[in-house]
Amino acid sequence: MNTTLYTSRRTFQEQVLDLLGQDICSGRYTPGAVLPSEAELCERFGISRIVIREAIKSLVAKGMLVVRRKVGTTVLDPNHWNLFDPSIIAWRAHPSVLNQTLSRDLMELRRIVEPAAASLSAQRASDDERKALRAAYLAMERAIAEDGDYVAADLAFHAVLLAACGNQFVRQMQDAMSAILRTSFEIVSQKAGGPAFSLPMHEALCRAIEAGDARAAEQAALALIDQATNDLNARLKFE
Length: 239
Hints:
By secondary structure, the chain is mainly α. The chain folds into 2 domains: 12-80, Winged helix-like DNA-binding domain superfamily/Winged helix DNA-binding domain (Arc Repressor Mutant, subunit A), CATH 1.10.10; 86-235, Four Helix Bundle (Hemerythrin (Met), subunit A) (Up-down Bundle), CATH 1.20.120. It has 11 helices and 2 strands, in the order αααββαααααααα. The chain has helices spanning 12-26, 38-45, 49-61, 86-92, 100-124, 127-146, 150-164, 168-172, 174-188, 194-211, 214-235, and strands at 65-68, 72-75. It has a two-stranded antiparallel sheet with strand order 1-2. The chain is elongated and about 65 Å long.
């Protein structure tokens, strides 16, 4: 079946990359499977071989595919994938693909990273970072009051939180963490009253960092993650 690509800000290569990545993550092409030939993919997407080859190269670089002579382009086991790649996180966490194990692992990673980052941010955040965190919180508040983009404001809040911890390795993880957080926020924010319910917990976290209270910041971050985990499991009907 042919797939229609649309002219937009995203290039045809980006669209093909997304579609093939989603196909692999959804199990359309399982580990060990050989992708259709370039000619078949060109027919499916209605584009040139150059676009297909560039998309394949990107997936090879992400550890998802290997190109072998006389065999073809083969899907690798997820153990070989760059699991922190934001695109792979987004493809695997799509609501039609997300399973209980992946949901658990994503939330466990949040529990490992964010409370410690919140504690460090309370100790290390600069005045400008504290102001930026408060500004992001106020943007969340406005988004709820005015039916604005709550997810974007929430992401901005957590981006400041991770940056303010002052750890170069955590900062390097920001793109991956943002992809994880976006997945959680987009699903949980669909719950009626969910954003408004979580707002006081965000304010508690913001206040703790403003006050330089590392312990309170850590506990506030844990409370947020616990609530998000419960909401995510309920939304996806996981036990």
